[in-house]
Amino acid sequence: MNAASALTRFDITASLPAFDPVPAADGDTVQIDLDARSYPIRIGSGLLGQPETWDGLPKARQAVIVTNTTVQPLYAAQLEQALAPHYAQVRTVALPDGEQYKTWESLNQIFDALLGGQCDRKTVLFALGGGVVGDMTGFAAACYMRGVPFVQVPTTLLAQVDSSVGGKTAINHPLGKNMIGAFYQPRRVVCDMDTFATLPDRELSAGLAEVIKYGPIADMAFFEWLEQNMEKLRARDADALRVAVRRSCQIKAWVVGQDEQESGMRAILNYGHTFGHAIEAGLGFGTWLHGEAVGCGMVLATELSARLGLVDGAFVQRVRNLVQRAGLPVLAPQLEEDSPASASASASASASASASASASASASASASNGNGNGNGNGNGNGNGNGNGANAEAWLHHMRVDKKAEAGQIRFVVIAQPGEAALATAPDALVAEVIAAHSNPHACLMQR
C-alpha cells in the first residue's frame, strides 16, 4: 500500500525548546501558554509542604483536597498544613485507589463532599495523587456549579509527566477508557519530586512509558538520552528524574499550546494509546496499569509504522528494547471481547512480574507506600497467541477509541523517528502486528 498517502501530518506553529540534559539547581517552571487559561508547572523538591508554593491561587473560603486511600496517609496532612494560611477551611476527600474506581460512583463521592460541605463556586479543589485522582478531580471541578478552580498536585511519575498537564479530565465507561469527560485546565500544576520516594517500582515503570513516548513523537535527542540513562531513572537518580520530568512537560506544553482540545496535533500524544486502551478495556480496568498498557502499545504502534513502510525494523527494536529496559511489557496479551472485566488473574500477575524485580518485591512495595494499586504479583501463564478471535477482540475495543471516526480506527504512527502522524490500516495488517508481538505461552513479556 502507499503508506504516505494515508498519513495525516500536522503543521507545527511553535518551536520546541532545545533539549537540555542538565537539571536546574533550584527547580524548574514550565509554562502552558493558553491565553487566559495559561498556567505554570512547577517542578522541584519539597514544594508540597511549602505555603509559598500555593501563593497567587484564587481566593476562597474553602479548599478541598481530593486524594485516595493510599496517598492520604502519606501526604494529605502535609498539604492541609501548607494550605491552612490561604484558606479558612481545608477538608479532604479520600477515594478508593485504582483505575477500576474511575467511575460515576467515585465522582459522586466528590460531589457529595462538596454539597455536604456547602462549598460555593469559589472553592478550590486540589488533586493529590496519580492520574485517576487528577482526572476525576478535574472532571468534578469542571462540573460542580458549572466550573470551580482546581490545582493538580501529582504524586506519581505518570501523572507528573502526562495526565496532570493539559486539561483532559474524565471517568471510564465499561466500554471504553476516558470516554466521559471534559477539557478543563487547572490553575497550576505542582510536581514535587520528593513524592517519588514512596512510589512502588511498578508505578515508576508505568510512568516511564509516558516519558519514553515523547522521544519517537517529537525529540530523538531526548530518546537517545533515555537510552543512555534508563538505569539511572529506574534507580531514582534525582537529577535524571528531574531532567525527564522537565523535558516531558516541555514537550506536552508545546503540543497543548498548539492544539488544546485535540482537533489535530494533540492526537500525537496518544502514541501507543489506541493499542493500550484496548488492553485496559479488554483485560478489565486496573488489571494492567495504564503505563504498562501504553508501553506494550508503543511497541505495537511502532511495528505498525514499520509495516506501513514508515520506519525500519531497527527502530522498532530500539523502541522495544527501551520499553523492556523500563520494566514494561512488550508482548500483547490475549483479550476477551465479551467480558473484559473477567480477564484472568494470571494476566494481572504477569503484568506485575514484568514490571518488578520479583513478584514479592512488587507486592511489598505496593503494600508499604503510596501510589500503587497493588494489583500485580505472581506469575502469569495466559495464552496471547494472536489468533483470529483475539485479533477481533482487539479491533472491537479499538473501534470505540476516541480517535476513531465512523468506526474506522486511526492510529498514531511514527512517520519518521521524532515525528508522529495519524494513519488508518487494514484490519488484517493490525492483526498481523498483534500476532507478531504476542507470546504463545504467556500473557506478557519475558524479562
UniProtKB/TrEMBL annotation:
<dbReference type="GO" id="GO:0009073">
    <property type="term" value="P:aromatic amino acid family biosynthetic process"/>
</dbReference>
<feature type="binding site">
    <location>
        <position position="290"/>
    </location>
    <ligand>
        <name>Zn(2+)</name>
    </ligand>
</feature>
<keyword id="KW-0456">Lyase</keyword>
<comment type="function">
    <text>Catalyzes the conversion of 3-deoxy-D-arabino-heptulosonate 7-phosphate (DAHP) to dehydroquinate (DHQ).</text>
</comment>
<feature type="binding site">
    <location>
        <begin position="131"/>
        <end position="135"/>
    </location>
    <ligand>
        <name>NAD(+)</name>
    </ligand>
</feature>
<dbReference type="GO" id="GO:0046872">
    <property type="term" value="F:metal ion binding"/>
</dbReference>
<protein>
    <recommendedName>
        <fullName>3-dehydroquinate synthase</fullName>
        <ecNumber>4.2.3.4</ecNumber>
    </recommendedName>
</protein>
<keyword id="KW-0963">Cytoplasm</keyword>
<keyword id="KW-0057">Aromatic amino acid biosynthesis</keyword>
<keyword id="KW-0170">Cobalt</keyword>
<dbReference type="GO" id="GO:0005737">
    <property type="term" value="C:cytoplasm"/>
</dbReference>
<dbReference type="GO" id="GO:0003856">
    <property type="term" value="F:3-dehydroquinate synthase activity"/>
</dbReference>
<feature type="binding site">
    <location>
        <position position="210"/>
    </location>
    <ligand>
        <name>Zn(2+)</name>
    </ligand>
</feature>
<comment type="similarity">
    <text>Belongs to the sugar phosphate cyclases superfamily. Dehydroquinate synthase family.</text>
</comment>
<dbReference type="InterPro" id="IPR050071">
    <property type="entry name" value="Dehydroquinate_synthase"/>
</dbReference>
<feature type="binding site">
    <location>
        <begin position="97"/>
        <end position="102"/>
    </location>
    <ligand>
        <name>NAD(+)</name>
    </ligand>
</feature>
<dbReference type="Pfam" id="PF24621">
    <property type="entry name" value="DHQS_C"/>
</dbReference>
<dbReference type="GO" id="GO:0009423">
    <property type="term" value="P:chorismate biosynthetic process"/>
</dbReference>
<feature type="domain" description="3-dehydroquinate synthase N-terminal">
    <location>
        <begin position="93"/>
        <end position="205"/>
    </location>
</feature>
<comment type="pathway">
    <text>Metabolic intermediate biosynthesis; chorismate biosynthesis; chorismate from D-erythrose 4-phosphate and phosphoenolpyruvate: step 2/7.</text>
</comment>
<keyword id="KW-0520">NAD</keyword>
<feature type="region of interest" description="Disordered">
    <location>
        <begin position="363"/>
        <end position="390"/>
    </location>
</feature>
<feature type="compositionally biased region" description="Gly residues">
    <location>
        <begin position="371"/>
        <end position="387"/>
    </location>
</feature>
<keyword id="KW-0862">Zinc</keyword>
<dbReference type="GO" id="GO:0000166">
    <property type="term" value="F:nucleotide binding"/>
</dbReference>
<keyword id="KW-0547">Nucleotide-binding</keyword>
<feature type="binding site">
    <location>
        <begin position="155"/>
        <end position="156"/>
    </location>
    <ligand>
        <name>NAD(+)</name>
    </ligand>
</feature>
<feature type="binding site">
    <location>
        <position position="177"/>
    </location>
    <ligand>
        <name>NAD(+)</name>
    </ligand>
</feature>
<feature type="binding site">
    <location>
        <begin position="195"/>
        <end position="198"/>
    </location>
    <ligand>
        <name>NAD(+)</name>
    </ligand>
</feature>
<dbReference type="InterPro" id="IPR016037">
    <property type="entry name" value="DHQ_synth_AroB"/>
</dbReference>
<keyword id="KW-0479">Metal-binding</keyword>
<dbReference type="InterPro" id="IPR030960">
    <property type="entry name" value="DHQS/DOIS_N"/>
</dbReference>
<keyword id="KW-0028">Amino-acid biosynthesis</keyword>
<feature type="binding site">
    <location>
        <position position="273"/>
    </location>
    <ligand>
        <name>Zn(2+)</name>
    </ligand>
</feature>
<dbReference type="GO" id="GO:0008652">
    <property type="term" value="P:amino acid biosynthetic process"/>
</dbReference>
<feature type="binding site">
    <location>
        <position position="168"/>
    </location>
    <ligand>
        <name>NAD(+)</name>
    </ligand>
</feature>
<dbReference type="InterPro" id="IPR056179">
    <property type="entry name" value="DHQS_C"/>
</dbReference>
<feature type="domain" description="3-dehydroquinate synthase C-terminal">
    <location>
        <begin position="207"/>
        <end position="337"/>
    </location>
</feature>
<dbReference type="Pfam" id="PF01761">
    <property type="entry name" value="DHQ_synthase"/>
</dbReference>
